[in-house]
Amino acid sequence: MNQTVIGIFAYADKLLSAAKELREYGIEEVSLLSPVPLTEDTGQMNGNSRDFLRYFTFFGGISGVIAGTLFAVWTSVSYPLPRGGRPILTGPPTLLISFETLILAGILATFGGFLILTRLPALKKRPYHDRIGEDKFGIVVKVKEDKLTHIESILVSGGAEEVIRIED
Amino acid sequence: MSGNITYKEINDDVINAMTRTGPLYYVVLAIVSLLTVLLFFLPWVYQIKTGQGVTGLNNPSYWGVYLVNFVFWVGVAHAGTLISAMLYITHTPWRRSVHRSAETMTFFALIISVFFIMIHMGRVWNFYWVLPYPNQRTIWTNFISPLIFDVFAIGTYFLSSLIFLYFGLIPDIAAIRHRAIGWRRKLYEALSLGWRGTDREWYIRDKAYMLFSVLIMPLVVSVHSVVSWDFALGIVPGLHKTIFAPYFVTGALYSGFAGVVLLISILRRVQNSAKYITERHYDKIGIMLLALSLLWSYLTILEIVMGLTSHSSFELEHLRYKLLNPGFAGMTAIMMFSNTILPLSLAIRKIRVSITCQCIISIFILSGMWLERFLIFGTALPRKFLPYAWHDYHPGWVEIAITAGSFFLFILMFMIFMKIFPVISITEVKEEIGMPTERGT
Which chain A residues contact residue B212 at CB under 8 A? Predict the structure, then answer.
């Protein structure tokens, strides 16, 4: 049976060195909790290096341009509004509309991508400690019961102020 | 940031500012609410019941104070995104304590600007006619009209600003949710989406923040350019100028920064946040104001020179009316003093770091920028082409009341917001002081 353990730390450097030690021990699934953004290296260290978010933005933007252009073109051509011999379909207004829809769709897609990649909103309660939002740091580790004591000792020797067990 | 502040102290300060409310706050809130209803909503209801005849709008001046206010508030909205996005990309550290207030200002200023479009519209219940939607008459909105550019630009900016504001708030709401009780706790738990601050969440959040910033920056420029084209794409003398887009964008940023100065000064006083909003912030914003003042002054002079060299009698008549008519000449003089001469004093550091001086200069800048917009609309349409059509424009009492009321509406929205959400970014202020390590931060 798996068990989740949270180690609560007061200092960021202690947190990072304890996380390193856990990875060296062979624990792959180490999640760090922090009240502030950790360094980029830390994010990549945990297997986040594949930055998918930009694809959401890119494809969102592209969809926005296509949708905006098609919309402006389709309505102008299908419901023509003759204006004293001027062209029914004109470039600059279509470009402007498609630019705005590019930005809008890009932003919506980025926000959607952020939610998908961070798995938010969280429907189930996940391991957390209220002090993380204030001034503490945390390490969340999911381990088999036989390794539990050893993991706890790594966390304590690494500087954890408190180690909390959570039943899965 | 002043002194040695701990992470916990930041949380405590922000929570205390939100929850500890003295009787003075409620008194001010009641007065502001009353003034908003009396000056903004009641005159608007009266206008809806009576008709647009209660305003000074008449042939040929169908663009009056309402559109001046629309442009003014959209302009004020611009600095928020500038501080959040441009200064984020350039890793400017002083933005951290002030960006939330600026983003909030953006959002509320946009709400008010949309109100003014509806007020200007007259038959407000038909507002949805501006939106592209299928209808039984098979008439679609005309995409060649700059007014439709506006719908798309303002709509995009409104949604983007809302997402940007909310996105930044997520970790902050999560940081305070466990200390909240009752409806606050339910609200914060729902809005924080279950944010825990994992390395993965922070990593993706940082990437998303950068992408938002990159997308929003051109949007800021496009929005006020589009607003300027509402006027510049017509052939009305005084409005039909190619310089309008950069002129409007510069003016928007200029008035927006002045708005930020006032807002953070009020916050500093009301929320006792002097340790977060320091002399350094005023110094940096002062330099921005000075630079924008110089750029705005250059464009203003250029606008006049463009008119003088236009070889168009209509354009020259408009300039004569704007610069030599006693009433408008006085307004032009006040505008130049407020926006060009007075801000030169910001070259002196002592004045930049003096909160009183900056507030006074900012009030002058905001007044000057409002006058600038009034001078653009108030002088162009009354002198539209041939003299038989000339007619002076004088705003009616309803227009004046609603204009004054809009400022109270803005204050009201901000006063409510600052008691529900953190107006100083907890996360970013913590980032600024650095992570605690065993050897200190």
Answer: 107, 110
Using alpha carbons only, how large is chain A's radius of gyration in Å? Answer: 25
Give the domain extent around A58. 53-118
Tell me if B199 and A45 make a contact (CB, 8 A cut-off).
yes
Rounded Cα distance between B28 and B224, Å, is 33
Residue B298 tokens, joined: 């250059």
Contacts of B169 in chain A (CB under 8 A): none
| Helix pair B244-270, B397-420: axis angle to 10 deg | 50
Give A102: exposed, middle or buried? Use CB within 10 Å, 0-12, 13-18, 19+: buried
ipTM rounded to 2 decimals: 0.91
d(CA B375, CA B385): 17
In tens, the pLDDT along B135-155 reads 887 778 778 888 889 999 999
Radius of gyration of chain B from Cα atoms? 23
Chain B residues 190-209 with CB within 8 Å of chain A = 193-208
The domains found in chain B, sorted by start residue, are: 7-431 (1.20.1630.10)
Q: Are residues A67 and A111 in the same domain?
A: yes
pLDDT digits (tens, 9 = 90+) for B32-75: 999 999 999 999 999 999 999 999 999 888 899 999 999 999 99
Kindly report the length of chain A: 168
The answer to whether residue A14 sits within a structural domain is: yes
How many domains, in total, are found in chain A? 2
Shortest distance, CA A129 to any CA of chain B (angstroms) = 9
CA distance B268 to B286: 17
Helical pair B313-324 and B279-308, crossing angle rounded to 10 deg: 130
**Are A158 and A138 in contact, with CB atoms under 8 Å apart?**
no
Tokens 């409310």, residue? B21
Tokens of B381: 């349409």
A74 plus A28 within the same structural domain: no
- For residues A59 and A113, membership in a common domain is answered with yes
pTM score of the predicted model: 0.92
Q: Are residues A152 and A114 in the same domain?
A: no
Which CA distances in Å does A53 have to A25, B81, B168, B205?
Answer: 31, 21, 17, 10
Query: Residues 236-275, chain B: which have Cβ within 8 Å of A?
Result: none
User: Under a CB-based contact definition with an 8 Å cutoff, are residues B232 and B303 in contact?
Assistant: no
Q: Phi-psi category of B138—alpha, beta or left, where left has phi over 0 and alpha has psi -120 to 50?
A: left
- In this structure, are residues B322 and B375 in contact, taking their beta carbons and an 8 Å threshold? yes
Give which of B193, B199, B222 to mutate to test A binding, by max A Cβ within 10 Å: B199
Check if the beta carbon of residue A63 is closer than 8 Å to that of residue B221: no
A43 within a domain of the structure (yes/no):
no
**b vs e for B392-428, b when ≥16 Cβ sit within 10 Å of the residue's Cβ?**
ebebbebbebbbbbbbbbbbbbbbebbbebbbbbbbb
Indicate if A30 and A65 belong to the same structural domain: no
